[in-house]
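Glycosyltransferase family 4 protein: structure, please.
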Amino acid sequence: MHVLVLHDLSPGEARFGVRRRLEHLAHHEERAGNTVELRSIIPESRSRPNRLERLVRGLVAGRTSTVSDVDRVVVVALHAPHMVVLARTLASRRATAVQLDLCDSRRLLTAQRPRPGGRFAQLATATSELLADAAFRALPPDLPRSYISREDAVADDGLSASEVLVVGPAPLPELAALGPFVGRPTSILCPVDGTSPEGRAALAFLHEVLTEAAPMVRVEASGHPPPDGRPGSGAVRWLGHVPTLAELYARPCVVVSTNPAGHGVQNKLWEAFQARRPIVAFDAALHWAPVLPWIHRVHSPGEFGSVLRTALETDHDTGSRGPDAPGPPPVPAGRTAPVPARSIPSARGRRG
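Here you go.
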């Protein structure tokens, strides 16, 4: 089966989350024995829907050769309303099967609300536009949709899709088999988009926490820097866009996710799991991974600072906070090494 994955990412665009999502979808289709083709659809102006409609009409009429012979089209929407328009139009005008990939968008729509005066008063503006867009509400009720986790599909209770697919980066047993993290962290790495309101709020919060918890620790951020120099941005070294975070995670670091809504957490932290780096994140951001022992899950700003300080002081090869601590005990033949005991408070019973 020939599957065409349509997205709105241009070759020079540094939207890491979308790139990772495309990898998830391609891997999912290839495991099913399908041939996958990735194609970008960039309207000349996103503010002029007639441009996009002309492009869609060309797709529907089969004038684009790569679309005329496919068996299924997967439209990656994420937070782009015009891609929802494309999915709706293709579903209504073509005989080819259409699938709308929402990733974690619907969870944000239902779970993230503005809280005036609060430190986490973050509202995903683009996602709200997606909810308000008439094309989203006008989607056919039987249009298959895909999500990054089962929780996101359940959160989409306002729609009655006939088929729901879960396409994640990896099943939890594979993550759990990776083992404990390694080494003593020397820096903090925060994957974040500084151009977005929620990204700037996350950086300001991280700067506030580090002022008390770890003022001398180097903080590095991957992604777009804030264009307006909001408070907190000066204390962060901006690394810009990198094709993969693996090269950053090769150095000993603590990976921090400060977004309590969980936006893009699986995309941004998947390579941190593979590199066995300690992760500090709010419990709500990790609703899908309650069984992973090496994630430090916190529930309040005060707890965040103390947990981050402990993660920075711990040698994760030995589980000890002392520089002269003995190494781990020898492992008997035929057995695997246990996960080192954590000195970080755990709250497994609480869910975000």
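Notes: The first strand starts at residue 2 and ends at 7.
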